[in-house]
Amino acid sequence: xxxxxxxxxxxxxxxxxxxxxxxxxxxxxxxxxxxxxxxxxxxxxxxxxxxxxxxxxxxxxxxxxxxxxxxxxxxxxxxxxxxxxxxxxxxxxxxxxxxxxxxxxxxxxxxxxxxxxxxxxxxxxxxxxxxxxxxxxxxxxxxxxxxxxxxxxxxxxxxxxxxxxxxxxxxxxxxxxxxxxxxxxxxxxxxxxxxxxxxxxxxxxxxxxxxxxxxxxxxxxxxxxxxxxxxxxxxxxxxxxxxxxxxxxxxxxxxxxxxxxxxxxxxxxxxxxxxxxxxxxxxxxxxxxxxxxxxxxxxxxxxxxxxxxxxxxxxxxxxxxxxxxxxxxxxxxxxxxxxxxxxxxxxxxxxxxxxxxxxxxxxxxxxxxxxxxxxxx
Length: 377
Description:
By secondary structure, the protein is of the alpha+beta class. It has helices at 2-8, 25-33, 52-56, 69-78, 83-88, 90-107, 112-117, 119-128, 136-151, 159-178, 184-189, 200-231, 233-241, 246-257, 288-291, 295-298, 327-344; strands spanning 11-14, 19-22, 38-39, 110-111, 263-267, 271-273, 276-278, 283-286, 349-350, 356-357, 366-368, 370-372.
């Protein structure tokens, strides 16, 4: 379908719903960088008015802001995502992965998403939000409910979890104001000479962004990578022969998996693409997954896995002002998990035919994926 869109109708108008779809890399890449023409402030879905409920509650997540507000908010939390801070997490991530991997090896066939690919990013997101270890059990329950509801397109169905999360962060913010750490929420609520403290509603909006984006993206990357490495054993062998290639190969895996298949923007002016004119005020879907498979950008074998491809630019994390704040963290989790998986279970396999995808229009991630650590199933 993506290939047909790129070839025959790259600026596609969906009459039912009255929105537009960009599918070629060049169009998507340029639109992602142009926040002035393609605004995020009216929400990221192709549904009109989807910001009304959030605005009524006083919550505006960072990803639904435009510069300069987005720039200022991003700067306020940026210290929590510095290269030094991200790199310092590798030991904890590896310890978590190894513990789960050894458990799976002893159990035999299991669901690798439930055992590793979902709890790993949940642990990392909790760290960045300053959630103490003692509270991680409750936080994981709320995260599961919110991610599931968001994937299904109905966040309100997780009303109880949202309410409990709000109450919890109201208390957590006060604790972190008194005793700040090196997490992103502490940076938001600590007032300095050049930045005021953020409100609880602003913190809650950021927490929603981290919970939904931080979990879905990494889970989708890891599940999709396990599927690809099972389907392309010769590419897996390349990484096993030289494990230093795993880090760079994460880019190729991100390109093909594209966990966030696409997000929408709103055109602030009429935009012409040849004979097609997208009118001001129209919703425009940036189809990242299609762009990442465009042969004009990635060559005639764009549909194939090539762990030595080294793609120069991909849109799996967006691009420009809204480039994903946690991209380096997701890459780190991907590299560490794949290093340990390929070392400890070199002959593993996953059964994609029995895998179950999460519902929803925007995110492609396995909800469950049967895993055989020795590849004999």
